[in-house]
Design brief:
By secondary structure, chain A is mainly alpha-helical. In chain A, about 75% of the residues lie in helices and about 0% in strands. Chain A has a two-stranded antiparallel sheet with strand order 1-2. In chain A, helix 2 packs across helix 6, helix 3 packs across helix 10 and helix 11 packs across helix 13. By secondary structure, chain B is mainly alpha-helical. The chains are: A mainly alpha, B mainly alpha.
Chain lengths: ~325, ~350
């Protein structure tokens, strides 16, 4: 156990946690904002994949990092808008439409990679760019903390800033208020003149925005190429992280950090011949438990409200009291 | 004609969506291929031109049919459980563990192995079901998480307890011959799994449309409040539909192991869980249409492989087409203007006649 503990408490491990966390935190924020608006965007996997691809392709074609960033973000927002169009306008079920978009992303990225670069697995033949690493002047010098916190990719710091941005957006702006209103009670929101469809569309586009940064980090920071299915389930883990964090900014951040830590740990354990499979299960089990606890709490609150408003139509027995 | 359109509107809409998909794929082939005629022929006719490809299509279809049936039962009850992948993986792993550690004649070994796999899958479907029924926890999220738990659990079981160390790669021990589903066509891998899949489709059809419980499942999905007022134990249906999902998915995974690989060799989760969702959508949750949809999907897959092999068009085109078809089928409002106009015209005519 000694070498294990030593590696966990090392500064390199702390660095790895932040590195692994970044491509989880962005899409987790994307899931959270869609959830707060009363929809759920499970197309994060596809969104990230498309944006990772667009980022690499545009940076290779133009040689300009900012143009690539803009193109990637635009692609992410477009994915959110397409999902919104099919769900809100064409009345498709959002889950099924999102599943279709994920398939579309997995197929189309490889399709176009082959057409444009002649390769079906990896884009390493292209000269694509990466986002720079940032060394923080003062912190860099501190022994352990410096290694952990300094020298990350600019998007890793961006992810932490995004948490703050998310908080401000949701709790300090009129748009955030509308999003929360629509999510909590769409009928009530509608009755005070909030356009539910437009607000949800905005939330889905914002969701695509957050997701796009995660995708760009993957192909232009985490590694420096695009590879087939390189999101590797991160878009799904994002749903877990957002759920575990109660769809709130700080909670989502901490949950992403936990998932990052467990994934980083699994990499270490694999090298020590310890079955990492069992460790890797833990955050998912924790998510299921957290989801159940949150749901049970929400149910109890609702039941209590119904009991308080006795005689209301529909105040029938809550589902929890019936034996299944 | 108009009456016909109204009556079969959903079916017609589905066919139009598929046609649009096929037209787009033809257009794509003409856009990118240097020999479009040859490529098109490989794609559309390829799966029928050789015996091995044709049987390949049937092999591909059988686990997809099982997963489609599994998903459809849950979808009928409006339970968005996407845990077929987890139940399939865990079911196959546990079934493999059972098969390699027991010895008995084939008459018992085959059904028992299938049952063990089905039971493991069903247990896995029970968890999101009970969490939803008791505490209203979203079955979508919990089943998704449990997919990962099943994946790591199955991997652990096989890699640390039933691994064949003699094989050069990570696989389980080979199943004893008594637990094999025989391949019945020489020169192909076609096995009895496809027959089982079709039989199960008919069983699910009988269950869904000719039993009380099947009716209760459909009614719960149709209108939960109405079902509750009608005296249906909705919570039981919520749990049961997901247990059946897990059971069928477990069967699907195990038949694949027993018929084709004869050992557990999935280091990655095979994508059958997603394919099941695809065919459930295309087949509109109807067990017999799901058979057709699964063959269609398998046809596209094998056609895509032939295309990939013989021409300059990547097979990923098929995935793009498939997602387009799904988007169009799920978009309720797609073509609804058409139906609306017909309805209005008919109403006007009826109004004028009276």
């Amino acid at each position: 156990m000694n070498p294990l503990l030593r590696s966990i408490f090392s500064a390199q491990f702390g660095y790895a946690v932040f590195r692994v966390m970044t491509p989880l935190l962005f899409p987790a924020l994307g899931v959270a904002i869609s959830h707060l608006a009363g929809t759920i965007n499970i197309a994060m996997e596809g969104t990230m994949l498309v944006c990772a691809f667009v980022g690499v392709m545009v940076s290779a074609a133009t040689g300009n990092l900012l143009v690539a960033l803009a193109a990637g973000v635009a692609a992410g927002v477009a994915m959110g808008a397409i999902l919104g169009y099919f769900h809100l306008k064409l009345k498709a079920d959002i889950i099924l439409a999102a599943i279709a978009l994920n398939m579309f992303a997995a197929g189309s990225t490889i399709f176009f990679l082959f057409i444009l670069a002649g390769d079906k697995g990896i884009s390493s033949g292209l000269k694509s760019l990466v986002f720079p690493q940032v060394h923080i002047p003062l912190i860099k010098g501190i022994p352990v903390l410096g290694t952990t916190l300094s020298g990350h990719n600019v998007l890793t710091y961006g992810a932490i800033l995004a948490v703050v941005l998310f908080y401000l957006l949701i709790f300090k702006t009129p748009l955030g208020l509308r999003i929360r209103a629509v999510g909590q009670n769409p009928d009530a929101a509608q009755s005070v003149g909030i356009n539910v469809v437009r607000t949800r569309l905005q939330a889905l586009m914002l969701s695509g925005f957050f997701g796009s940064l995660g995708g760009l980090y993957l192909s232009m920071g985490y590694v420096s190429w695009f590879a087939r299915d390189m999101t590797a389930g991160r878009g799904w883990i994002a749903i877990a992280a957002s759920t575990l964090g109660g769809h709130m900014p700080l909670g989502t951040f901490l949950a992403s950090l936990l998932f990052g830590a467990v994934n980083a740990l699994a990499i270490y354990l694999a090298s020590l011949q310890i079955p990492s499979e069992l460790i890797q299960m833990i955050p998912y089990v924790a998510t299921v438990i957290a989801l159940t606890v949150y749901s049970a709490q929400a149910l109890r609150k609702k039941t209590r409200k119904l009991k308080a408003g006795e005689g209301l139509p529909g105040a029938s027995r809550p589902p929890g009291e019936q034996a299944p | 004609m108009e009456k016909f359109v109204l009556r079969y509107f959903t079916l017609i809409r589905t066919i139009i969506a598929i046609l649009i998909g096929v037209i787009v794929s033809v257009a794509l082939i003409f856009l990118i291929s240097r020999e479009p005629g040859f490529s098109l022929r490989s794609f559309l006719l390829g799966p029928f031109l050789s015996r091995s490809r044709f049987s390949n299509m049937l092999e591909t279809a059988s686990p997809i049919i099982f997963c489609g049936l599994a998903i459809s039962v849950a979808f009928h009850a409006k339970q968005f459980n996407i845990g077929a992948a987890g139940s399939l993986y865990l079911g196959a792993a546990v079934g493999t563990a059972f098969a390699v550690s027991t010895r008995m004649p084939a008459v018992f070994h085959i059904p028992l192995t299938l049952l063990v796999a089905g039971a493991a899958g069903a247990a896995w479907g029970f968890i999101p079901g009970i969490l939803k029924a008791r505490w209203k926890a979203s079955e979508l999220v919990s089943s998704l998480m449990l997919n990962y738990v099943a994946y790591y659990g199955g991997l652990y079981l096989i890699n640390f307890h039933f691994r064949d160390k003699g094989a050069g790669y990570l696989v389980s021990h080979q199943l004893p011959q008594s637990a094999w589903l025989q391949q019945f066509m020489s020169g192909t891998r076609l096995h009895w799994g496809i027959v089982l899949a079709v039989v199960f489709a008919f069983l699910v059809y009988a269950f869904m449309y000719h039993t009380t419980t099947g009716y209760e499942i459909r009614m719960t999905g149709h209108n939960e409040h109405f079902a509750r007022f009608g005296g249906i134990n909705v919570l039981r249906i919520v749990v049961l539909s997901q247990v059946i999902l897990g059971l069928l998915a477990g069967f699907g995974g195990m038949t694949e192991v027993m018929g084709i690989h004869r050992r557990f060799n999935w280091q990655m989760s095979p994508g059958y869980g997603w394919d099941g969702i695809v065919v459930a959508i295309i087949g509109r949750n109807h067990p017999l249409l799901i058979i057709a949809a699964s063959f269609f999907l398998a046809y596209l897959r094998v056609g895509g492989q032939v295309l990939n092999l013989m021409s300059d068009v990547p097979w990923e085109m098929v995935t793009v087409i498939q997602s387009l078809i799904i988007l169009l089928i799920t978009a309720e409002a797609f073509l609804s203007q058409w139906r609306y106009r017909i309805t209005v015209r008919q109403a006007e005519r009826a109004g004028g006649a009276s």
